[in-house]
Amino acid sequence: MKFISSFFLIAALIIFFLWWKDSHQNQIETENNVLAVENVKLKNQLGEFKNNPAWLLNKAKDDFSNKEYWKAKEKLALIIYKYKDTKEYREARWLLKKVEVKLNPGIVEAGISGGNEGITESNSTYILKMLPYFDSNTNATYYKDRTSPRSKNENGLYLYFEREDNEAAKDLRLRIQLVTPHTFPVNNYQFNIDNQLFSFIPLKIKNDINNSVNREWSDDPLNKELYRLIAKIAYSNNTVINFNGSGGVIKWVVTQEQKEAFNNVLNAFKELGGKLDFK
User: Fold this and answer.
1) Residues of the domain holding 170
2) Of 202 and 7, which is predicted with more confidence?
3) Which of 3, 114, 149, 167 has the fewest CB atoms below 10 angstroms from its CB?
């Protein structure tokens, strides 16, 4: 009899322990779920706070004071292109001009050293449309339009140029990029500009494969003929570029944004002392 009583007591204890364990585990899981939801809410609130134009402007001012001009430029550019209807927009544009002067000492009222006295902070509107990139290996800054691709993983047709220290802009170049899901060796380009055909054979077309994506690109210095081609495209009503290769033909329509970018880069090139006297 004592044995049976002990058996039932042990069984009861085991059942109670299992019930307590399950209940406690459910409570822990519930608390973890609540914490996870709260964590997501906090992250979202933090993201919204950090994207607030007032916060961005204050951080940009801190960066400017600390002479971290590139960091300031990134925050100010975000305000200008995302928060046009805010009171911070006007102040961000004003501060961005000061940042550009620090990044590009040639943009001062005295003009670029060696001439070009007409270049001032107030009238350097096209330079403010550029996306500068400083290369520490070459000690040069490269300029392209803000709308141009940021990497080789995007299709692109754009101009860019180089500038060292306070020297005049130089090495104006045309870059064409094609991204396809399969290998498509390009031999040449043909532009249909308002129903007139113009062929362009670049010096070299390079290619590689990145994450199963085929990338092909050319990068050519502007000469007189290429400059005339760019001008025709920029002022055309309709331009289609044909990529002619062993795999057939791929066609793009050149966008109005790309045409405007040509104009922006050419004018910024001149503002920074570049010469369009190609041979």
Assistant:
1) 132-271
2) 202
3) 3
